């Protein structure tokens, strides 16, 4: 029994095409690709070959996801070099398993299945496409733009300007939000507020129309309310309500929560989680599954957490009868269960970051196994001058999961006085007031991850990588979000209307004059506004904006900075897995699609250069 | 020869019949709220085959008059025009019986900021709403049966404010007090409405389903121009700060 460390094989172009200036980048669409074992993995390959020599059967136990299937075929190809008999039918098999409980594993061991060639092919095609497209576009982009950057800033520091079919849409989201914030035009809106004091409680009623963007109309409606003098209660409804406990934990969710609650960026969260996994404290942290298998013994896992930590008592409560089956989400990658704690560990044995991540995983798991929080909600509506206003009161009756999951909030509102349907009263106060719309904030990491997830960019395993990549390539920078900066959407009724002030993008180099002057305010932006709340937001650099604008202006129907292309590729991968398309078809179709884009890029390079001049050099277009 | 004439004679070319048809069409249109002028009727009749069954002619006439400018197609009388002083802001409230026929010159969604409407138009232009090219920008929060969807605001439509014009060319603003079926930014400019029994508050006509009949139709040239200039107008309004 032996193991590998991820992919065993690497792929690169034949030696003739390796050097950047060796050929026209477009030739890479057809250039031959070599599969080889990279130096650092040589010992693994040799080990496999040594073991393969004398065995009759090769039994693969890699993860049961697409990548795992592909790695399985890589192992087979390496083993077959030494023992060709393993390529015969039935000589290489694989186990299907999705968790590491004893019974499950024993069952899997007894029921081997053949490797899924279709899934492996899907991964093969993705690898090939990423290589061909990534390399050709990166070379083209760098060769076109790097010289002008170097020349302008007078140094050789400017590195590679890379293209990746996931990186670019990720950058696209950041730039797009940045431009939305910059171009935002605040607008005034008007609303009617009713306040009535009863039983010494001041009740605020919210207008059913929320707010309107036409002053005259609101004045007319307001006048009709005043003319009516009295309001009539049209609805009084009290009913039970609940706040659902969270879903089982996936990688994407962990990353989002890591940013929001733990002040750790996605790359760091994954790094810490991996460490906790290696040490045996939590389950495998790369998973899309948000449902627990019915036959998993969750109570036993809860039992383990009664041994210590701040949550021990809560866990004991679950064991003593409070346990409730977790909710099931809609995703199951069939390879791994949701992230959960597998053993008890005393927090003092962990370093600070590990403690925070571990605590989150435990609390989340215990919350999943609790009851929803329960409360009672009262809705009251009144009719005043033909207009409807309403108010709502919440009483939290049972906190349940909230007692262990301190990351969610749900509190009782002030208690509402009793109203009766049909009751008529003269409102204490009726006012017309105005406010202004304010721009959305720049993208935070949880928002970016959510966007990538919703638009099919990257997988749970790679999202953090794409984000790291665009930081590494200096397409974006992060800065702490100032406290008080708007986090609500652009129609949020904030009458102080604090907007994020953004200096126009100028090509100010920093220090050594690289093409990465900030797209937003200069470095000290967060200072002077008081303490930050720790959330990081993404600001594109001038180079990032130039690239996105440059490509957008080329006027493609299928822009490289939008998610469609990548999403299509993902759909085609799926088609290969399901046998609807072959690898050859998909590679061919996709190459043709990108070749077309490549040709157009070549023809319109000036547009890209103009964008670079505008944003990076600060020249007016 | 007499027999041939009998066979080939198209009865409707006889004057009497044209007049009858004309009267029948006119009565039909008048009942619908769009009494045609003699000139319009004449033009209409000369463009159709009078052998067509009268019912079909009536429908065709309605169809065509709905596409015409009211100012040149229907007869005016004090009873089908907006009363004088309708738009006077000094009058707190006024009741009008009607029926008054008007055409729509402009439609605005006043429940959403103009800027968000501009952004939505631009997303449409970039093809982000076409199937397969959608870019999902708002990710819904899920926290239970009470989760309030903030995202909804960006999509909600209305209420709408309309600019209406009667057959004499007089204009007045109107707003949807309650949602009206068929009224929205997708409705056609030049479409006809018949208003009955309505209230005007400070010069603003208040519309409700019970006092509006949507006849439909559109004036092609106006509608086209309106759609082309919409984004410009929204931007201009947003820039001024949205005040009327």
TrEMBL record, chain A:
The keyword Coiled coil does not apply. This is DNA topoisomerase. Its EC number is 5.6.2.1. The lineage of its organism: Eukaryota, Fungi, Dikarya, Ascomycota, Pezizomycotina. The keyword Lipoprotein does not apply. It comes from Friedmanniomyces endolithicus. InterPro entries: Topo_IA (IPR000380), Topo_IA_2 (IPR003601), Topo_IA_AS (IPR023406), Topo_IA_cen (IPR013497), Topo_IA_cen_sub1 (IPR013824), Topo_IA_cen_sub2 (IPR013825), Topo_IA_cen_sub3 (IPR013826), Topo_IA_core_domain (IPR023405). SUPFAM superfamilies: Prokaryotic type I DNA topoisomerase. PANTHER family: DNA TOPOISOMERASE 3-ALPHA (PTHR11390:SF21), PROKARYOTIC DNA TOPOISOMERASE (PTHR11390). Residues 486-534 are annotated as: Disordered. PROSITE patterns: TOPO_IA_1, TOPO_IA_2, TOPRIM. The gene is TOP3_2. Introduces a single-strand break via transesterification at a target site in duplex DNA. Releases the supercoiling and torsional tension of DNA introduced during the DNA replication and transcription by transiently cleaving and rejoining one strand of the DNA duplex. The scissile phosphodiester is attacked by the catalytic tyrosine of the enzyme, resulting in the formation of a DNA-(5'-phosphotyrosyl)-enzyme intermediate and the expulsion of a 3'-OH DNA strand.
From TrEMBL, chain B:
GO terms for biological process: double-strand break repair via homologous recombination; resolution of meiotic recombination intermediates. Residues 84-230 form the RecQ mediated genome instability protein 1 OB-fold domain. Pfam families: RMI1_N_C, RMI1_N_N. One of its GO terms (cellular component) is nuclear body. It comes from the Eukaryota. InterPro entries: RMI1_N, RMI1_N_C_sf, RMI1_OB. Residues 29-73 form the RMI1 N-terminal domain. PANTHER family: RECQ-MEDIATED GENOME INSTABILITY PROTEIN 1, RECQ-MEDIATED GENOME INSTABILITY PROTEIN 1 RMI1. Belongs to the RMI1 family. This is RecQ-mediated genome instability protein 1. It comes from Friedmanniomyces endolithicus.
């Amino acid at each position: 029994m032996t193991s590998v460390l991820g992919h065993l094989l690497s792929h690169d172009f034949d030696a003739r095409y390796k050097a950047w200036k060796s050929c026209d980048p477009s030739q890479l669409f057809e250039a031959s690709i070599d599969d080889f074992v990279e130096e650092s993995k040589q010992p693994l390959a040799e080990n496999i070959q040594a073991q393969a020599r004398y065995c009759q059967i090769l039994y693969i136990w890699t993860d049961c996801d697409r990548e795992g299937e592909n790695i399985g075929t890589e192992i087979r190809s390496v083993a077959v070099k030494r023992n060709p008999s393993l390529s015969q039918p039935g000589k290489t098999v694989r186990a299907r398993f999705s968790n590491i409980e004893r019974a499950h594993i024993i069952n899997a061991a007894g029921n081997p299945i053949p490797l899924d060639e279709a899934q492996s092919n899907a991964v093969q095609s993705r690898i090939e496409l990423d290589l061909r497209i990534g390399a050709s576009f990166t070379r083209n982009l760098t060769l076109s733009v790097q010289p002008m950057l170097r020349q302008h800033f007078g140094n050789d520091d400017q590195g590679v300007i890379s293209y990746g079919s996931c990186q670019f849409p990720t950058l696209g989201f950041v730039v797009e939000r940045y431009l939305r914030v910059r171009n935002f035009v605040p607008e005034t809106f008007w609303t009617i507020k009713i306040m009535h004091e009863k039983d010494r409680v001041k009740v605020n009623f919210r207008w059913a129309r929320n707010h309107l963007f036409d002053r005259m109309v609101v004045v007319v409606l307001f006048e009709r309310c005043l003319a009516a003098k009295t309001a009539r209660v049209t609805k009084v409804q009290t009913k039970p309500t609940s706040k659902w406990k969270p879903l089982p934990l996936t990688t994407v969710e962990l990353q989002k929560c890591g940013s929001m609650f733990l002040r750790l960026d996605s790359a760091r969260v994954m790094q810490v989680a991996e460490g906790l996994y290696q040490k045996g404290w939590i389950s495998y942290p790369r998973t899309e599954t948000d449902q627990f298998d019915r036959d998993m013994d969750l109570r036993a896992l809860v039992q383990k957490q009664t041994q210590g930590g701040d949550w021990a008592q809560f866990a004991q409560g679950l064991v003593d009868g409070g346990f409730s089956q977790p909710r099931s989400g809609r995703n199951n990658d069939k390879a791994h269960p949701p992230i959960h704690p597998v053993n008890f560990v005393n927090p003092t044995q962990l370093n600070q970051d590990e403690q925070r991540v571990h605590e989150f995983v435990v609390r989340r798991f215990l919350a999943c196994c609790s009851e929803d929080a329960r409360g009672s909600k009262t809705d009251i509506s009144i009719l005043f001058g033909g207009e409807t206003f309403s108010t709502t009161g919440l009483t939290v009756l049972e906190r349940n999961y909230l007692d262990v999951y301190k990351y969610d909030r749900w509190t009782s509102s002030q208690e509402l006085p009793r109203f009766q349907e049909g009751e008529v009263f003269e409102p204490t106060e009726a006012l017309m007031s105005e406010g202004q719309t304010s721009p959305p904030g720049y993208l935070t990491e949880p928002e970016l991850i959510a966007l990538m997830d919703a638009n099919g960019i990257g997988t749970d395993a790679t999202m953090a990588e794409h984000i790291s990549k665009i930081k590494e390539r200096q397409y974006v920078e992060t800065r702490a979000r100032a406290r008080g900066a708007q986090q609500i959407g652009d129609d949020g009724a904030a009458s102080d209307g604090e907007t994020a002030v953004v200096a126009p993008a100028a090509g100010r180099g920093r220090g050594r004059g690289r093409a990465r002057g900030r797209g937003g305010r200069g470095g000290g932006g967060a200072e002077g506004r008081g303490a930050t709340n720790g959330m990081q937001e993404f600001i594109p650099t001038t180079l990032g904006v130039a690239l996105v604008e440059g490509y957008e202006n080329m006027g493609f129907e299928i822009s490289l900075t939008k998610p469609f292309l990548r999403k299509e590729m993902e759909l085609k991968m799926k088609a290969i897995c399901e046998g609807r398309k072959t690898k050859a078809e998909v590679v061919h179709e996709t190459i043709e699609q990108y070749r077309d884009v490549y040709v157009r890029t070549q023809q319109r390079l000036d547009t890209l250069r103009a964008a670079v001049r505008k944003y990076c050099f600060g020249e007016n277009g | 020869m007499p027999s041939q004439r009998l066979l080939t004679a198209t009865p409707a070319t006889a004057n009497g019949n044209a007049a009858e048809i004309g009267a029948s069409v006119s009565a039909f249109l008048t009942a619908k709220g769009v009494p045609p002028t003699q000139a319009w009727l004449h033009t209409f009749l000369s463009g159709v085959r009078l052998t067509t069954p009268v019912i079909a002619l009536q429908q065709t006439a309605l169809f065509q008059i709905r596409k015409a400018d009211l100012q040149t197609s229907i007869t005016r009388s004090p009873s089908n025009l907006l009363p004088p002083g309708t738009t006077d802001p000094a009058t707190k409230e006024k009741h009008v019986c009607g029926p008054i026929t008007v055409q729509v010159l402009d439609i605005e969604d006043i429940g959403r900021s103009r800027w968000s409407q501009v952004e939505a138009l631009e997303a449409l232009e970039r093809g982000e709403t076409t199937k397969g090219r959608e870019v999902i920008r708002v990710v819904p929060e899920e926290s239970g049966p009470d989760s309030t969807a903030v995202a909804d605001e960006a999509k909600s439509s209305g209420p709408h404010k309309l600019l209406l014009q009667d057959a004499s060319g007089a204009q007045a603003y109107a707003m949807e007090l309650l949602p009206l079926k068929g009224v929205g930014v997708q409705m056609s400019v030049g479409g006809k409405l018949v208003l009955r029994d309505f209230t005007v508050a400070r010069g603003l006509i208040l519309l409700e389903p019970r006092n509006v009949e949507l006849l439909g139709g559109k004036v092609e040239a106006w509608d086209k121009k309106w759609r082309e200039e919409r984004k410009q107008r929204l931007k201009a309004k947003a820039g001024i700060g949205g005040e009327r």
